[in-house]
């Protein structure tokens, strides 16, 4: 388990840096779950668990000072334990959700500690010392990474040996309940996402997708292609109207200025 724990920890480092920097979507559960499965020798199961968690956490985002559940730790530990226990997505979701909530508080603590470096950076900025500003900036990232990877490494290294025995002792009726809950949670993720997306002019696209699925029998890929086409038409036929008005006003102002001269 030591080698697997080290590889998974490296995955967590990459995901954490991506989340706090370039945002190449390497931190999403779909990617981290698949990579965790690959590290444990079961890429397919990792992809399944990661995709399930991705659907569940579609609408999870940090707005303002709010710190969302730690989906990186939740997805990695949940996927790892789901594979090691042999219970798949059922165990993955059952473990990922509480882990994400608990490690969320560690993320808050890490960012609180980073205030120390922010104050140091402010003093360096007042003196014009740019090299120290970079140092304090990356020190903040280092603290966040450490608070993220230490729990993941310990959980995989220590908990991996006992997780299968733990789930073997859980009564079948509870596992059945976890299966049902696992099927419902992705719907909650879609609901959170739609709550942000559905505005006055956007509900019609949901209706189009529903009609394609319920009455047209189209696959998810087919509906996605219809969505791409609808988005293209909407973007090119509706939104360019505003820039035309601005252009006309600007040209009128130019004509008036030339006339005044």
UniProtKB/TrEMBL annotation:
It holds the Pfam family EII-Sor. InterPro entries: GatZ_KbaZ_carbometab, PTS_IIC_man. One of its GO terms (cellular component) is plasma membrane. The chain crosses the membrane at residues 6-26, 47-66, 72-102, 135-158, 170-193, 205-234. The keyword Cell membrane applies. The keyword Transport applies. It is found in: Cell membrane. Keywords: Cell membrane, Membrane, Phosphotransferase system, Sugar transport, Transmembrane, Transmembrane helix, Transport. It comes from the Bacteria. One of its GO terms (biological process) is phosphoenolpyruvate-dependent sugar phosphotransferase system. It is a multi-pass membrane protein. This is PTS sugar transporter.
């Amino acid at each position: 388990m030591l080698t697997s724990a080290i590889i998974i920890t490296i995955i967590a480092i990459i995901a954490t840096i991506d989340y706090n920097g370039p945002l190449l979507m390497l931190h999403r559960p779909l990617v981290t779950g698949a990579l965790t499965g690959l590290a444990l020798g079961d890429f397919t199961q990792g992809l399944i668990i990661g995709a399930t968690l991705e659907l569940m956490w579609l609408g999870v985002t940090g707005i303002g000072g709010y710190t969302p559940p730690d989906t990186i730790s939740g997805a990695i530990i949940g996927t790892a334990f789901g594979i090691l226990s042999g219970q798949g997505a059922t165990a993955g979701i059952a473990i990922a959700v509480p882990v994400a909530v608990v490690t969320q508080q560690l993320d808050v603590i890490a960012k609180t500690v980073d205030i120390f470096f922010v104050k140091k950076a402010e003093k360096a900025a007042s003196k014009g010392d740019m090299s120290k500003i970079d140092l304090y900036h990356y020190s903040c990232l280092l603290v966040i990474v450490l608070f993220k990877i230490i729990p993941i490494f310990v959980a995989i290294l220590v908990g991996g040996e006992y997780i299968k025995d733990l789930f073997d002792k859980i009564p079948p009726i509870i596992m059945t309940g976890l299966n049902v809950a696992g099927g419902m949670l992705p719907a909650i993720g879609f609901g959170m996402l739609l709550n942000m997306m559905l505005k006055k002019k956007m509900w019609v696209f949901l209706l189009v997708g529903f009609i394609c699925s319920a009455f047209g029998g189209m696959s998810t890929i087919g509906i996605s292609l219809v969505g791409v086409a609808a988005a293209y038409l909407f973007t090119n036929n509706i939104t360019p109207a505003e820039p035309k008005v601005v252009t006309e006003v600007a040209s009128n102002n130019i004509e008036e200025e030339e006339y005044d001269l």
